[in-house]
Amino acid sequence: MVNTMGEGPCSQPEAMGKDSSLLSARLVRNRIYCSDALVIMRSWPDSCVDACITDPPYNIARKKRGLAWAFSSHVTMESDWDRFLNDDYAKFTLSWLREVCRLTKPNGNIFIFGSYHNIYLIGALVQRLCLRIVNSIIWAKPNAQPNITCRMFTESTEQILWLCNNHEKKARNWTFNYQLIKEQNGGKQMRNFWVIPTAPLSERRLGKHPSQKPLALMERIVLAATNRKDIVLDCFAGVGSTLVACKKLGRKYIGIERDRKYCQIAHARLKEARAS
Questions:
Q1: What are the tens digits of pLDDT across the range 168-183?
Q2: Residues 6+ apart with CB under 8 A from 58
Q3: In this structure, is residue 121 part of a structural domain?
């Protein structure tokens, strides 16, 4: 299904088999792994999750301190985990994409968040891997951070690539709960332009992440593209918005997050979700 960057388009996949009997004990459902995503994913067996919903680093961190806005507490991204050299970012992105494709069952759904900083690179790599692009969703934020440079339009959207984990010519029968989503949209077909505010203060009460996604957004994706008891992977889990949405909606989850602080926040949010 996947190939390396140096190979021609749609070439035969390299052998990526694992000893499932050896590795399956290491993968535990409804757990957050506080570890490096690539290291831990490489230890897991093929086709062990039904879907992947993830929000990877965007490679937008500044070398110096971020710009502050006088009327809010917002600071532009300056975390080390989001800082790469361009060539390194492309290699990193291809590596985790290949692992996600290996771990996700054939024809399983993969949702990837991005902005204009990285989504075109991700899209190019997806096409190199010959994966089926089902949709591109635009998430519009009505309460987006103002642009303090006054030299461009205010950036107020992110994109979400919806992939089917199979060759573009063989992809079929991916999960889409059309009728359920239509009912939630007042009996009308839902469009791919979603106006949803950023995560409210109530969802940041236990701690926050600079790119935290609102539960309303994550719940819509989980409802639309997975079924009850499905296993959903988020390999860049942050403070666990994907995982909390899965918990609330009866899906199983597996999260990976290397920052211990964010892991602790995600644990606290999941504990709260269980209690409620």
A1: 999 999 999 999 999 9
A2: 77, 82, 114, 115, 117, 118, 211
A3: yes
Q: Which two tokens stand for residue 88?
A: 């390194």
**Distance between CA atoms of residues 77 and 58, nearest Å:** 10
Query: Comparing 138 with 27, which gets the higher pLDDT?
Result: 138
Q: Which residues, in sequence order, are CB contacts of 227 under 8 Å at separation 6+?
A: 50, 175, 177, 251
Confidence of residue 243 (pLDDT cuts 50, 70, 90): very high
Residue 115: give its domain's CATH number: 3.40.50.150
Instruction: Quickly state the pLDDT bin for 87 (edges 50, 70, 90).
Output: confident
* pTM score of the predicted model: 0.84
User: For residue 276, what are its two tokens?
Assistant: 């409620």
* Tokens, residue 263: 């892991």
Q: Residue 202's pLDDT is what?
A: 96
Report CA 7 to chain centroid distance, whole Å: 26
Does residue 240 sit within a domain?
Answer: no
* Domain extent for 51: 45-203+211-226
Task: Give the gyration radius of the chain's Cα atoms.
Answer: 18
3-state SS of 120-153?
A: HHHHHHHHHCCEEEEEEEEEECCCCCCCCCCCCC
Domains of the chain: total: 1
